[in-house]
């Protein structure tokens, strides 16, 4: 493990690179069929098989560079291995498409369990990036919890009712854009409950 602070560009590349590589590889191979050991696999399954070791390697590199991984990163890579592996093994793309649903349900469920105890588990993950007062953390956690459940529902609707290609676009760009826009719209909350406001006022 490296004790030095990693290059932000390299860290971003390791986090986003595998997803973008999956997207590009899918566009390249989506219309092809590969016969392996007498079984036909479409491009989506083959790309999924390639994506799993790439994601594991990228996550391992992140751990080596930063010295730690968030629980979200660990859960994500485990589910990719399990459900991606099931899709490849059973030659059934549905398992991999379910993966985002399970990720968001797990995270939403964990945050929801914390809220029932009067706690913000989101604070444990994001406090160093977004310093807020206690009330702000509880409001943000409730919103993020509801948002995760909404994303889980959206993923289910897309993969069950639309084409594989539409789902790949949704997974690569739609979910990412939704997360970005969600936090953009939390600007008022950050201003109202930000700790910096207290420091300025005192």
UniProtKB/TrEMBL annotation:
Domain of life of the native organism: Bacteria
Subcellular location, principal: membrane
Transmembrane segments: 12-29, 41-65, 72-90, 102-124, 136-154, 166-185
Gene Ontology CC terms: plasma membrane
Recorded topology in the membrane: Multi-pass membrane protein
Subcellular location: Cell inner membrane
Keyword tags: Cell inner membrane, Cell membrane, Membrane, Transmembrane, Transmembrane helix
Family affiliation: Belongs to the YciB family.
Function: Plays a role in cell envelope biogenesis, maintenance of cell envelope integrity and membrane homeostasis.
HAMAP family: YciB
Name recorded for this polypeptide: Inner membrane-spanning protein YciB
Organism: Roseivivax marinus
Gene this protein is translated from: yciB
